[in-house]
Amino acid sequence: QVQLVESGGGLVQDGGSLRLSCAASGRTFSSYAMGWFRQAPGKEREFVAAISWSIGATYYADSVKGRFTISRDNAKNTVYLQMNSLKPEDTAVYYCAADRSYSYYPPSHPPSSRDLYDYWGQGTQVTVSS
Predict the structure, then answer these.
(1) pLDDT 10s digits, 18-30
(2) Are 54 and 101 in contact (CB under 8 A)?
(3) What letter does residue 72 receive in the DSSP assignment?
């Protein structure tokens, strides 16, 4: 069992930045692909970014490409989401998730489906004011 705890959310102005962190329990963090998703009120949870377990390949939703950066520190069992140039439409609860399948995801098939992930955090609120 893996527990994921997000932090770093908050209120920021349009154009501002935030860095989210997701701390994972367990000794096998480095073997999990990690993803970030978000859910705005009244909308479905959507893929934001992911990073592979092996070569550190990264994947992004088109809506955040060039503004968000996902990274991981396996020594600290932590995955990060650096969010720059934030917009009001980025307002949502952000969740991190872990995929234990050891799968390789080519760039043409990023791990963007919620069904791929086995563990989820409780979420952290990000609010961007205009």
Answers:
(1) 999 999 997 788 8
(2) no
(3) E
